[in-house]
Write a structure and sequence with these properties.
This is Molecular chaperone DnaK. GO terms for molecular function: ATP binding; ATP-dependent protein folding chaperone. The two termini are 30 Å apart. By secondary structure, the protein is of the alpha+beta class. The strands form three sheets. It has a three-stranded antiparallel β-sheet with strand order 5-6-7, with helices on one face. The chain has a two-stranded antiparallel sheet with strand order 1-2. The chain is 37% helix and 20% strand. It has two domains: 183 residues, Nucleotidyltransferase, domain 5 (2-Layer Sandwich), CATH 3.30.420; 38 residues, no CATH class.
Length: 224
C-alpha cells in the first residue's frame, strides 16, 4: 500500500452509530480535499456504497453471467449482533450504490419501513446455516436440526443457535434463531493490532525505532 493515509479500512464497524463523528482523527480521515481545495465530507456509509458499486461492476464484467439489465435486487448479509442504525446505514449504502426497485420515474421505491424495495438484509449466521444445510443435502430430507454458528469476522464475533425445520408438513424450510450473542468490537482487526503492537515493541527494543512514529524518528535522526 503506497499511501496508507489515503486508504480506508474497517469502515463496517463505524456504521453501527454516529459516535465516530466525535473522534477528531476519524473526522479528519473522512474529510477529503477536492481538486479546487474545498473539503468534502464523506462517511463510512459512503465507503460501503462504493464497495457495493465495485462488487456490482465486478459482476457485470463476468462474461459467464448474463444480467439482462442493471442489477436492482440484492440480499446483503449483516452481523447478527448489530444495531438498527447499522441496518439503516446498509440500506442507505445499497440505495447510493444503485440497488433497489425503481418506479416509472426512475426513483428507488421506499417501503413503509423505510427500506428500499428489493433489498433484503440477511443475518450472517442464517446465511451460513443456509450454506451448511445446502452443502450436506439437508433440504428435502424431512429433518429438524439445531445447529450452532460461530462467526469470527474482521470486526465482530457472533455465536448463534438456529433451528432448521425441513419436515414434510412444512412448505419450505424454516430458520428460527433460538439465541444469539456477540461482541461488536472483537475480530480480526483486533488480533492484527495486538500482533502489530507486539512486533513494534520488539523491533523498538532492538533498534530503538518506533515504527508507529516514524516522522518523529526521522526528525530525531536529522538532528543528530
Amino acid at each position: 500500500l503506497s499511501n496508507p493515509d489515503a486508504a480506508f479500512a474497517s469502515t463496517k464497524r463505524l456504521m453501527k452509530n454516529d459516535s465516530w463523528q466525535q473522534d477528531e482523527d476519524l473526522i479528519n480521515k473522512y474529510t477529503l480535499k477536492e481538486d479546487d481545495g474545498d473539503d468534502i465530507k464523506i462517511s463510512p456509509t459512503d465507503i460501503a456504497a462504493e464497495i457495493i458499486k465495485a462488487l456490482l461492476e465486478h459482476v457485470r464484467m463476468q462474461d459467464a453471467i448474463n444480467l439482462n439489465g442493471q442489477i436492482r435486487y440484492a440480499v446483503i448479509c449483516v452481523p447478527a449482533n448489530t444495531t438498527d442504525e447499522y441496518r439503516k446505514n446498509v440500506y442507505k449504502a445499497s440505495k447510493l450504490a444503485g440497488l433497489g426497485e425503481i418506479d416509472k420515474n426512475g426513483n428507488v421505491i421506499i417501503e413503509h419501513n423505510g427500506q428500499p424495495k428489493g433489498i433484503m438484509l440477511l443475518e450472517e449466521p442464517t446465511a451460513a446455516a443456509l450454506g451448511y444445510a445446502n452443502e450436506i443435502g439437508f433440504f428435502g430430507n424431512e429433518k429438524e436440526q439445531t445447529i450452532l454458528v460461530y462467526d469470527m469476522g474482521g470486526g465482530t464475533f457472533d455465536v448463534t443457535i438456529l433451528h432448521i425445520d425441513s419436515t414434510k408438513d412444512i412448505e419450505k424450510p424454516k430458520f428460527k434463531v433460538k439465541a444469539t450473542k456477540g461482541v461488536s468490537q472483537l475480530g480480526g482487526d483486533d488480533f492484527d493490532k495486538v500482533i502489530m503492537d507486539i512486533c513494534a515493541e520488539e523491533f523498538k527494543s532492538i533498534s530503538g525505532i518506533d515504527i508507529f512514529d516514524l516522522k518523529s524518528d526521522q526528525k530525531s535522526n536529522q538532528n543528530k
